[in-house]
Amino acid sequence: MSHTTTLNVTQKSRHGFTLVEMLVAMAVTLLLMAAIARGFAFVGERIGDSRANLYLSGELTDITTRLRDELNRCTVNLTPNKGEPDQAGYFLYYEGQVTDATSSLFRTAGTVASPELPDSRYGDFDDYLAFTAIAPPNSWFTGKVPRYVLEQRRSDVEGTAYSLPTGPYNTANPDPFEPVVIQSRYAEIVYFASPEYVASSLPASPAYVDSDGDTDLGGGTPGVENGIPDRLRLHRRVLLIRPDLNLNAGNLPIQSKSITTSSGTTTVQFMHADVWPTAASTSISTGATAADAWMYGMAGVHQQCDLSVRRVLDPSTGLPLATGAVAANSLADLSKPHNRFAHVRIPGGALSGAGALTQTSMPVLALGPPATILGMRSATPNDLAPPLTPNAGPVVTPHRLCGFLRPEFVLGNDLSHLDIPNDSWGLERIGEDLVVNNVIGFDIKIYDPLATSFTTASSGLVVGPNDAGYREALLEAVSNVTTSAARGWHVGSFVDLAYPVLAGGSLRGWQPREIDRLSTAPSSAIPTTGNFLITPFSGIANYDPVPPSTGANSRTAYSNSLYRSGRILTDGTSIQLFQPAFDTYTSHYEQDGFLQDRVEPSEGTRWITLPSPLNAATKAAIDLGSDGVDSAGIYRSGFPSVSGVFGADDIGEHETQPPFLAAAESIQISIRLENPKTRQLRQMSVVHRDIR
């Protein structure tokens, strides 16, 4: 008999995870969450970058669209006046010493074999643009003036006496100094970049904020500045052209505003320029002193109104009236450089050379010293240093009046004049002329049909005048003209005015540098072969790379027109002033009854203060370019006569000339912005062509 045994095995069920399983699951979950978080972070960063990029593009599109429209409405063409009737208005472009190549040449880190360029994102940022424009129909330019200017002009027209209203002010009795918005069909428009200044440096010694703290730029000293402003802003002034606001006497009405403060009663004068200094010891300083009133003396007026204004000149001497009177400009007035925004004449006492008490400079811009990057030295052989002998030769960039526009001309930044809190003028105007922050490039270039680019043998790259390696490409080209020609030269390019001699340019100015990491041959190896550098807008007539000190080289290095315009001044040995600019200019100085003349052949034109009464010799020298006579033997202060070659009133008889004589085919304006958080860069350009 068999038996079957059945075993009942009961399996115990599990209701959870082991500790190991939990830890594994948690680790997997954390990894998954980290991956998701990283994915979201990546997406967020891309969204942030896209938004920043979109913002930069939007800002640049707005700026360039407005600039293009205003340039298209410029009242003049880009042809300098060489004796013809003046155009109605003007166009001016000033070229600063910094270029697109400066930050790459002057600020390098790493080694000579493997250089690093931490500041190469910075472009050319010290240029200046100004012109007159007509507004589109039904959209006229607007600006502010004190109410009393309109009211007093109305009384003047009506032939009634004007009495300045006193307080208390209300709707029925408004404050005569209250800003009133007016319109104009024509305006003087100015674009310029300006840095943020160290507050404690104003107004005595303007110094821009430069506290990058970079420690790896070759200097070897922690916290060294890079010589470039930390923050740059683009500004735009729109100055209304309203000569109808002048009184019958020809000037704007001057009124004084008394203010009682805790320290007593103070007085602010409106529509009144600082008194022109007369002391023989007047000099150019970095500070704001009474002796420098010639430089910033119109700044207070430009804070008090949005009119295009000028100093009124004494008809007997040609100097500003001692009354400090100013007048509103017309388009015809603005064709003359001395009537324009921020243009000054340097008193004779501030100029070296003979006749200091009887001369001023021709009109130039009220600029500060050059960007400090141009004067920095390095303790290591990785940085480009200043010239071997700064300012020692007559063709070396000077150390003054070739930087940013004086801070007093920026709205709300004028601390050289009394500012009363909450008075609607002065500090309260900060930001009204601001276009955009975080600018790292405001670059203006002109088309030079003869500027030459070269194809290099080593890399086959095309290198132009704006590239940091242009000097090396030029050296290679002139060392073997035949093979270089076979590789090809390319003629025609947008360039900086006076590009061969700018201190921050690709050719490093005239002199060899103390330390030059790209130096492959001495400067003397750049000959005049092919006259590569003698072009319509190079500003030079004879390139001799050996720094001239005396003799013919110093007299013929720069073009005669630069000397005749007064944009370059020397004391016969070294440069006192150098402001290369393309200017439509004027023929006014040939018929103004005053003497503008080159004191010595190599010194540049100055405005001569006339003696009273005029002696026969002085009378005979005035305005020879418009007397209808072929003045034999006269070619302006020692230059040989060309009498009989061109006829009566030829250009040789003129007292002045535009800085550059060639007409400009095109002007290119580039604006570069940076987002400081994402470090993104964007740049857009506008090309203005003279098609008339």
The coarse overall form would be globular
pLDDT < 50 runs, ≥5 residues: 213-223, 378-395, 520-524, 547-554, 633-644
Physical arrangement of strands within the biggest beta sheet: 16-8-7-4-1-22
> Number of DSSP helices?
11
Beta-strand percent range: 15-25%
Tell me the structural class.
Answer: alpha+beta
The helix content, as a percent range, equals 10-25%
Terminal residue distance: 128 Å
**The biggest beta sheet, please?**
6 strands, antiparallel
The gyration radius over C-alpha positions equals 31 Å
- Average per-residue pLDDT, rounded, comes to 80
Q: What is the β-strand count? A: 26
Please, what is the oligomeric state? single chain
Write a structural description:
By secondary structure, the chain is α+β, with helices and mostly antiparallel strands. Helix content is 17%, strand content 20%. The protein has helices spanning 19-72, 102-106, 147-158, 293-296, 299-304, 331-334, 470-479, 481-487, 552-556, 560-565, 616-621; strands at residues 91-94, 109-110, 115-116, 128-134, 141-146, 179-184, 186-195, 232-240, 255-261, 264-270, 309-311, 326-328, 343-344, 359-361, 364-365, 434-436, 439-455, 462-463, 489-495, 568-570, 575-578, 581-583, 595-598, 605-608, 666-675, 680-689. It has a 6-stranded antiparallel beta sheet, covered by helices on one side. Strands 17, 18, 19, 25 and 26 form a 5-stranded antiparallel beta sheet that branches. Strands 14-24-23 form a 3-stranded antiparallel beta sheet. Strand 17 (439-455) and strand 18 form a beta hairpin. Helix 7 packs across helix 8 (481-487). The longest helix has 54 residues, at 19-72. The protein starts with 18 loop residues before the first helix and ends with a strand.
